[in-house]
């Protein structure tokens, strides 16, 4: 919960600073976390006053921040992996199609997942089955479809569902 408050303080810091960039956001977040830690450690404010009981809204906001952070990390990692593959003397791409069984059911959940998959280098959402239970994905590295399905489920779909449900 403290992290969610730190991220909120980081966003406020960035907005007030007038120069929105990642360095300002990270600095504001660290500053906010430090201040919260000091206030609680010195008992200036009781824990309940600084950090209210966990509410569903705050849980979803925290999950949304976590989804954004994980997606940005995966985006950078996929760019490096694909660039590394392209720069090799002999590319070892094993492209193919993967049938991804969806747990997401709403339009928002499915669309968000499909867009995040398509934005990630090396993967592309191609089609959705008529019964809306399978998303077909083209991947440049499709040698192990089960591993790819598990990675997408763990890194993206589970976090999307944590935000929307």
Structural topology:
Layout: H1 2-17, H2 22-41, H3 47-50, H4 56-87, E1 96-101, H5 107-119, E2 123-128, E3 134-139, H6 145-164
Antiparallel strand pairs: 1-3, 2-3
Written description of the protein model:
This protein is mainly α. It is 64% helix and 11% strand. It has two domains: 1-53, no CATH class; 56-165, Alpha-Beta Plaits (2-Layer Sandwich), CATH 3.30.70. The protein is built from six helices and three strands; from the N terminus they run H-H-H-H-E-H-E-E-H. A hairpin with a 5-residue loop joins strand 2 (123-128) and strand 3 (134-139). Helix 1 crosses helix 2 (22-41) and helix 4 runs antiparallel to helix 6 (145-164).
- CATH topology call of the largest domain: Alpha-Beta Plaits
Parts with pLDDT < 50 across at least 5 consecutive residues? 44-51
The CATH architecture assignment of the largest domain turns out to be: 2-Layer Sandwich
Strand order of the largest sheet: 1-3-2
Give helix and strand order, one letter per element, not per position. HHHHEHEEH
The coarse silhouette is globular
Query: Count of DSSP E strands?
Result: 3
How much of the polypeptide forms β-strand, as a percent range?
Answer: 5-15%
The structural class is mainly alpha
Number of domains: 2
**Main sheet overview:** 3 strands, antiparallel
């Amino acid at each position: 919960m403290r992290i969610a408050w730190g991220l909120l303080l980081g966003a406020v810091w960035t907005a007030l600073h007038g120069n929105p960039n990642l360095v300002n956001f990270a600095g504001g977040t660290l500053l906010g976390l430090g201040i919260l830690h000091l206030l609680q450690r010195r008992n200036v404010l009781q824990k309940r006053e600084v950090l209210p009981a966990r509410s569903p809204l705050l849980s979803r906001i925290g999950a949304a921040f976590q989804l954004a952070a994980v997606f940005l990390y995966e985006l950078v990692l996929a760019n490096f992996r694909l660039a590394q593959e392209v720069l090799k003397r002999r590319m070892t791409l094993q492209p193919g199609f993967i049938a991804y069984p969806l747990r997401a059911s709403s339009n928002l959940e499915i669309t968000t997942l499909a867009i995040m998959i398509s934005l990630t280098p090396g993967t592309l959402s191609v089609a959705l089955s008529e019964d809306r239970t399978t998303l077909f994905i083209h991947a440049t590295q499709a040698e192990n479809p089960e591993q790819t399905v598990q990675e997408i489920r763990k890194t993206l779909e589970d976090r999307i569902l944590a935000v929307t449900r």
